[in-house]
Amino acid sequence: MSGPYETVIGLEVHAQLRTRTKMFCGCSTGFGAAPNTQTCPVCQGNPGSLPVINKRAIEFGIRTALALGCTVNLQNRFARKHYFYPDMPKNYQISQYEEPLAEHGTLEVAAGGAPRVIGIQRLHLEEDVGKLVHEGEFATARASHVDYNRAGVPLMEIVSKPDLRSPEEAGAYLRALRAIVVYLGVCDGNMEEGSLRCDANVSLRIAGSDVLGTKVEIKNLNSFRHVQHALEYEVKRQAQALDVGERLTQETRLWDPERGRTVAMRSKEFAHDYRYFPEPDLPPLDLAATEVERLRGDLPELPAAKRVRFVQAYGLSPHEAELLGQGRGLADYFEAAARESGKPKAVANWVLNELLRELPGDDDAAVAACPITPSRLAGLLALIDDGTISGKIAKDVFEKMFRSGEDARAIVGREGLTQVADTDTLAGVVDQVLAQHAKVVEDWRNGKKAALGFLVGQVMKSTQGKANPAVVNQLLGEKLPKV
Amino acid sequence: MLAALSIEALGARFRDGSATPSAAARDYLARIEALDPKVRAFMTVTPDVALAQAAEADARFEAGAPRGSLDGVPIALKDVLCTRGIRTACGSKILERFVPPYDATVVRRLQEAGTVLLGKLNMDEFAMGSSTENSAFFTTRNPWDLGRVPGGSSGGSAAAVAADLAAATFGTDTGGSIRQPAAFCGNVGLKPTYGRVSRYGLVAFASSLDQIGPFTKTVADAALVLRVIAGADPMDSTAAVVPVPDYRAALAGGVAGLRIGIPREYFIDGMDPEVERAVRAAVDVLRGLGAKTEEVSLPHTEYGLAAYYLIGPAEASSNLARYDGVKYGLRLPGARDVIEMESRTRAAGFGREVKRRIMLGTYALSAGYYDAYYGQALRVRTLVARDFQTAFQTVDAIVAPTTPGVAFKIGEKEDPLQMYLNDVFTIPTSLAGLPGVSLPAGFTLAGLPIGLQVIGKAYDEATVLRVAHAYERATDWHARKPALS
Ligand SMILES: [Zn+2]
């Protein structure tokens, strides 16, 4: 077998749900607490303890399922998935298997070319496991400790169909999925803290064939960069192997970001027979159709729809709409400022170029904490618009607003930043500048037109940027030929 | 002697001031000290807890404000129920040093009712067994014949009540572990409907079958106790939200006019003729009291045992996976890695019967065998449950022997399959999740108790207890006591 190959990728994305409490007990899901301080008999798997389903987690799962166009299974149930691992309190994980919460959805993804619809196979809920902390290197650790704070944290697993055709597309899918769960408020989307993790299944086949090639699973990818790099590496590795007629083995591999390659896990680590069976401690879930419909009615406008609307209603470019629509906080910010100022294009520019540079991040929390409210941004734009300040001054004012939390008018007033457009005042400055820079004026007369820019700059400098550039230009135009 | 009294009689003495909870507790503790070395029912005795709780109960009675029918009553718990700060070993080496950080819901409800905890009772390891010979620590003896088993797995609980070492005890029934030892020890053992009593804090054997219930000296006492422990629990999603009636009041009705079914399949070849004779005589007594009896058929009975010995071990293999030496209990030192540590701990910590069932259950759930074994067993379970549903369309309760034989000698049944047959009459009800009670219905010529089983519809413990109570009032088997001194 030899190229060209078609790449076949399926992603399994684990999203941590933003519930206050764990999947099956009342413990906090807060991140970063001291080891084992957020645990109880249930999430520690103590003898005799029993799980109780977190209703909010079910609701979050349903919301996501509906946003992805899935069919919600009104009857679904939890099962036990068995394997021995010291960070797993019960040595089985409560998950959903044959009867998941939802199935058969879609997600539209745009990567480079035309948008493509990727199938969602299923969406189910499960509990997270704990964390092992080794003293020293894993292989030679003197001791290992277990932190169960994470154990029992609710996870939602979204499994795509093997519809993705390139690493870029996989990256775009993951970004689109992240945008949706963040929009819905069901996941904070924070990949560094592990709120969003991903396993990828990759195989290659001769283009046009409908027989699937040997599948390799890459586990635990925890950033967009890792997903894309790992997939690029793996596609290349498989293509090279196939080119020389090598037989690929179905295996699980790990991405080693330091060395930039995937490495095979020892076979012992994934040769599992999970021995699933229905969780007898939990009755099957019987959802009311009316409740599901209520949740459907409550769904917010989703990123894809918002992008389209931003282009149509505000005249933004698709790229601007994409960037502004990525997070709900940013999108709402943009819309509020656009509404108040009536200048959506300008708002988009300021948000994308200035605001995002100042903010520590583009997530909802960062946007919510922004000292420049949408209404203050609109106030700043109004000052530019009515000629009170120049665009250049406005950038300084913006920075000051960000640091002090004051509104633009207060800063402009106090610091005397009002633009000078008075011809008499500026004429004096222009005369002075021309007198000081006789050499430059000489250059200009000799045809060096660039000298004009320098002279404008000098006028701006001596007015601390407050001079109205149009007036300065006009004055220079009047005065230069006369010299 | 206060220790001979039923809960009802004891409560009356507390209320009229002729006895105090402390006096009762001291009486029981003295009896435990004198007799338990022979019976060996107790795994742990908690005199400090008992005397402190009794003193509090004393104060409530003195103040004229007792909490209810169980206030001041000395009880003991099968060592499978979690007790905060008190070791809960579950009959296993692997939990020998396990001290739970919390109380089971039933334990909490009993505390709130004012009961006095005498201690924790011996049991077959993880409730797997029919003789209490599978305890990792020692074998409990039958108070009627110290050379015989008390039954299992709640053998310690049954023996303690029979020997008057507690006014009431609590056990668990998965396939018959309350009713069978109650029959062997000659007292009242009640398995409520699955879902009637919260399992929170009950160390799981088979989650879909386990149920907590009381051992008492009389049926009326069982009614009093059930009222206290029954009811929904936010910590257990399988505990049903079904109203809990006043069971004591429900006993008054008698059996006149009730329709009682006698299952054809429960009188099998090879059963003890003395048992069969006693049970048939008991049916006559009920008929004499005005009950209408008729034969019913439960055609899938013979498959119940096989289904049970797939479902039980399958769930057990899963529930027992958590005992790995990582978190609590036994850990074998010297392993080179975690896998070796876990496997060596489990090899050393579990006894033979538990290992047998873990292996069986693991196999039954493994890929490729699931449908042939576990799936098939679930289908049989449905058929067994349907048998009962059909029978209960025509009868109000079913009466049958509790066990095919009486208490056997310690060490007599070495073949596990022979041992499993003990539960052949109790397992079908467990599979169907129905309530059942065993109560004394006679003695063999050798003086060993015979148990009568009354089975009811789901959540209809009231009728079960009503039939049992009527029979108990018409006979005096329950009044006999083993000769222990
Ligand atoms: Zn917890």
Written overview of the protein:
The complex is a heterodimer of chains A (483) and B (485). Chain A has a nine-stranded mixed sheet with strand order 2-6-7-10-1-11-12-13-14. The radius of gyration of chain A is 30 Å and the shape is elongated. Chain A has 483 residues and is an alpha+beta fold. Chain A has helices spanning 55-67, 167-184, 224-243, 289-297, 303-314, 318-325, 328-341, 344-358, 364-368, 374-385, 391-404, 408-415, 423-436, 438-445, 451-462, 469-479, and strands at 5-16, 71-72, 75-76, 79-82, 92-95, 102-109, 116-127, 131-134, 144-147, 154-160, 196-206, 216-221, 251-256, 261-264, 277-278, 285-286. Chain A starts with a strand and ends with a helix. In chain A, α2 packs antiparallel against α3 (224-243), α13 (423-436) crosses α15 and α15 packs across α16 (469-479). The longest helix of chain A has 20 residues, at 224-243. With 485 residues, chain B is α/β, with parallel strands linked by helices. Helix content of chain B is 39%, strand content 13%. Chain B has helices spanning 7-16, 21-39, 47-62, 105-112, 155-162, 179-185, 219-229, 247-250, 273-288, 301-319, 338-349, 352-365, 371-391, 416-420, 427-432, 461-474; strands spanning 42-45, 74-78, 116-121, 168-173, 188-191, 211-216, 259-263, 292-296, 397-401, 436-443, 449-455. Chain B has an eleven-stranded mixed sheet, with helices on both faces. Chain B starts with 6 loop residues before the first helix and ends in an 11-residue tail after the last helix. The site of zinc ion has 8 residues of chain A, from loops. Zinc ion (ZN) binds next to loops of chain A.
